[in-house]
Amino acid sequence: MKKQLFITLAAVTAALGSLAFVQAQGNGGQAENQEAPAAQAGELVQPFDFPHEPHVAVNQIDCQYCHFSAERSRSAGVPPLATCMGCHTYVDGEAQAEDIAQIRQFWERGEPIPWDRVYRVADHVYFPHMRHVSAGVECADCHGDVGEDISVIQQVNQPLTMGWCLNCHLEMDASRDCTVCHY
Ligand code: HEC
Ligand code: HEC
Ligand code: HEC
Ligand code: HEC
Ligand code: HEC
């Protein structure tokens, strides 16, 4: 099953590869005007490591307590600093006590924490979180086991290619109409 999935994915990716090539040539092989794509493994520059594990696995905080808009909008949302302060006004931390001190300094200065974005689809693609959440697709199906395996999010756990989307849409009988994903 896993193997079959991989083969289909490889085929679609290969087919798209040539499209991408043509497109890349069309604008001189550069993509300067596009917004920066999500960083790949090792390229992220976060202000400090945010460990999902003590929040998700240990304290059983629901994903949507922090990623508050996943159920009702296109983006899942990144928690505002006020959400952190609800607890870290009191919770000091141990191993990362310095980072907790930093969080409080951001708060005193009235600045948001400048998180680097990890996952981002191409500009011409529409990805609605709410449709997936309401269809019962789990966060972990797409983002992996955030909390245990990948406590500090620092790599794209899946490729965000068209083949990846289509494969699941085929399996779960969701739409494969070009216009649902492309503007
Ligand atoms: C206490 C708040 C909190 C909880 C609970 C939480 N997260 Fe996060 N999450 C964050 C913060 C802060 C970031 C930004 C830092 C980072 O990317 O490492 C983040 C980043 C992410 C990202 C990457 C976002 C991007 O930049 O593309 C994903 C995916 C994610 N979380 C999924 C989850 C899932 C799934 C759960 C539940 C199992 C969860 N989170 C629970 C606070 C939280
Ligand atoms: C519902 C309460 C709650 C919220 C909301 C919350 N945290 Fe935490 N956080 C905790 C608890 C409890 C721990 C574990 C503390 C410990 O082990 O000493 C923790 C641990 C941490 C740690 C590791 C501390 C250490 O020394 O190991 C960091 C960093 C952190 N949180 C950052 C954040 C950030 C950033 C936010 C906002 C996006 C946030 N937390 C939101 C409760 C919360
Ligand atoms: C069907 C796959 C899928 C599911 C299910 C899913 N995500 Fe995502 N997630 C993505 C994709 C794709 C992106 C990039 C979207 C974009 O660039 O517009 C993303 C981006 C994010 C981000 C980046 C910031 C933002 O505002 O979107 C966070 C945080 C996140 N997801 C958290 C979650 C949480 C929490 C859940 C479960 C409630 C979840 N995701 C369910 C695929 C998924
Ligand atoms: C793990 C499975 C899975 C993955 C991966 C996935 N989707 Fe979906 N998608 C679904 C399901 C299930 C639905 C809900 C269908 C429904 O509501 O009837 C859906 C619905 C949608 C819809 C709404 C379709 C409509 O009929 O209006 C869009 C748009 C969409 N997905 C885009 C994407 C994009 C873009 C990606 C890749 C970046 C992606 N999806 C990856 C399972 C997935
Ligand atoms: C379920 C969502 C989904 C559907 C349906 C879909 N696409 Fe895509 N498509 C994507 C995603 C995601 C990408 C971005 C791939 C990347 O960035 O690697 C993409 C990229 C592309 C590209 C650009 C190639 C590239 O590498 O950037 C073309 C051209 C394209 N799609 C055409 C189509 C056509 C034609 C259809 C209908 C037959 C279609 N797509 C249906 C999600 C979808």
Explain how this protein is built.
The protein is an all-alpha fold and 183 residues long. It folds into two domains: 1-15 and 50-78 and 118-183, no CATH class; 82-114, no CATH class. It contains nine helices and no strands. It has helices at residues 2-26, 52-58, 63-66, 81-88, 97-109, 129-134, 139-143, 162-171, 178-181. Helix 1 (2-26) runs antiparallel to helix 8 and helix 4 packs across helix 5 (97-109). The site of one heme C has 22 residues, from helix 2, helix 4 and helix 5.
Name some characteristics of this structure.
183 residues, mainly alpha, 2 domains, 45% helix, elongated, binds heme C
Brief characterization of the structure:
This protein has helices at residues 2-26, 52-58, 63-66, 81-88, 97-109, 129-134, 139-143, 162-171, 178-181. It is mostly helical.
Which percent band covers the strand fraction? under 5%
In total, how many beta strands?
A: 0
Number of domains: 2
Ligand set: heme C
Would you spell out the secondary-structure blueprint of this structure?
Blueprint: H1 2-26, H2 52-58, H3 63-66, H4 81-88, H5 97-109, H6 129-134, H7 139-143, H8 162-171, H9 178-181
Helix pairs in contact: 1-8, 4-5
One heme C (HEC) binds next to helix 1, helix 8 and helix 9.
